[in-house]
Amino acid sequence: MSKPSRLLIAASGTGGHLFPAIALAEQLPDYKIEWLGVPNRLETQLVPDQYPLHTINLEGFQQRFGLGTLGILLRLANSIRQVRQLLKENNFQGLVTTGGYIAAPAILAARSLSLPVILHEANALPGKVTRWLSPWCTNVAVGFAAAENYLPRVSTVVTGTPVRSQFRTPQTLDLPIPENVPLIVVVGGSQGAVAINQLVRQSAQSWFDAGAWIVHLTGENDPDAQSLQHPQYITLPFYKNMAGLFQRANLAISRAGAATLTELTVTQTPAILIPYPYAAEDHQLFNAAVLADAGAGIVFRQSELTPQLLESKVLHFLKSPLELKEMRSRAGALAIPDSAEILAELVRKLVN
Ligand SMILES: CC(=O)N[C@H]1[C@@H](OP(=O)(O)OP(=O)(O)OC[C@H]2O[C@@H](n3ccc(=O)[nH]c3=O)[C@H](O)[C@@H]2O)O[C@H](CO)[C@@H](O)[C@@H]1O
């Protein structure tokens, strides 16, 4: 039997970068996969035990201020050297990355060794590293077709963004929610969103009065997370079974990270989207526009959204099941549920 191919996956920082990479890795059980991340981010908790995690220190390189261009270049050169050494010592045959800062040294190191690189960009407005370095990659896959407009010199393929396998089969929900009540899920990306949490807590009473239940994923950093108590209200800092939750939900109130939006299309969950206003280059607004333009959701900028406006919009949806049904099917029309397999196929072609 031939030896398994060795693949390095560089994905780091947030759930939005990690979950799609984990979903892809799940489709490559015959590969010897190892992970590249940084020491103090979510990968130390989320990367499954079967993938050894190597870390490099990107501090300084990630800071926008403080270091001059020369400082940043020196850091980058140092990171590239570390990744090159890792790739050579372990005889990796290729690299997959989901973008972000970790992608810069990873792509440059792998290409300097002539290894194939597959870059997956989940956002509708590709990040800076993707825009700068995609011409160097062997293959560039995008989650949303809109991203292709920003990568004019690159040949890209629209693969969608991989979702964890649970999203594609019906999941049971281990939360005590009655069967026939409308369910609203509130989620602020993998870190939670304090501003959305506050808006929701101020608006929720009339949704309870209308019979709705709320599952509110607050993130770990909300000091007031426990301030609202109600029999129809479940609050958790983080929840693993997002597939079960989105499948059951009638409506989501959410930030507009690419991974979450992709999941919402796969589970066909209508959404009120409130893009994170401080995201790099306002990229969440571009993601949200993809769903809004397709009629799968509506978008509010955080600055224009008052508790009253949110309250009345949700009440409107709770009274309009037909409208929600149409939004569900429009969300479904955007979905590429087998994105992980499509990307895995690409990996098999290039890394062997
Ligand atoms: C603030 C910021 O810049 N965030 C970016 C970050 O995503 P960030 O991680 O903030 O957000 P995403 O929405 O893309 O992904 C969140 C992921 O965490 C999961 N989840 C969330 C809460 C929870 O309780 N349990 C759980 O499992 C979601 O199901 C999803 O898979 O990378 C994304 C992909 O490049 C970008 O589109 C986002 O804009």
Automatic annotation (TrEMBL):
Membrane topology according to the record: Peripheral membrane protein
GO BP, sorted A to Z: carbohydrate metabolic process; cell division; cell wall organization; peptidoglycan biosynthetic process; regulation of cell shape
EC assignment: 2.4.1.227
GO cellular component, one term: plasma membrane
Ranges where the Glycosyltransferase family 28 N-terminal domain occurs: 8-141
Any one GO molecular function term: undecaprenyldiphospho-muramoylpentapeptide beta-N-acetylglucosaminyltransferase activity
Catalytic activity of the protein: di-trans,octa-cis-undecaprenyl diphospho-N-acetyl-alpha-D-muramoyl-L-alanyl-D-glutamyl-meso-2,6-diaminopimeloyl-D-alanyl-D-alanine + UDP-N-acetyl-alpha-D-glucosamine = di-trans,octa-cis-undecaprenyl diphospho-[N-acetyl-alpha-D-glucosaminyl-(1->4)]-N-acetyl-alpha-D-muramoyl-L-alanyl-D-glutamyl-meso-2,6-diaminopimeloyl-D-alanyl-D-alanine + UDP + H(+)
Record's subcellular location: Cell membrane
Keywords: Cell cycle, Cell division, Cell membrane, Cell shape, Cell wall biogenesis/degradation, Glycosyltransferase, Membrane, Peptidoglycan synthesis, Transferase
Domain Glycosyl transferase family 28 C-terminal: 184-339
InterPro entries for the chain: GlcNAc_MurG, Glyco_trans_28_C, GlycoTrans_28_N
Catalytic class of the enzyme: transferase
Gene3D superfamilies given in the database record: Glycogen Phosphorylase B
Domain of life: Bacteria
Cited Pfam families: Glyco_tran_28_C, Glyco_transf_28
Pathway: Cell wall biogenesis; peptidoglycan biosynthesis
UniProt-annotated binding residues for UDP-N-acetyl-alpha-D-glucosamine: 14-16, 123, 164, 190, 284
CDD domains with a match to the protein in the record: GT28_MurG
Family label: Belongs to the glycosyltransferase 28 family. MurG subfamily.
Chain's role: Cell wall formation. Catalyzes the transfer of a GlcNAc subunit on undecaprenyl-pyrophosphoryl-MurNAc-pentapeptide (lipid intermediate I) to form undecaprenyl-pyrophosphoryl-MurNAc-(pentapeptide)GlcNAc (lipid intermediate II).
Record-linked HAMAP family: MurG
Protein name in the entry: UDP-N-acetylglucosamine--N-acetylmuramyl-(pentapeptide) pyrophosphoryl-undecaprenol N-acetylglucosamine transferase
Taxonomic lineage: Bacteria, Bacillati, Cyanobacteriota, Cyanophyceae, Gomontiellales
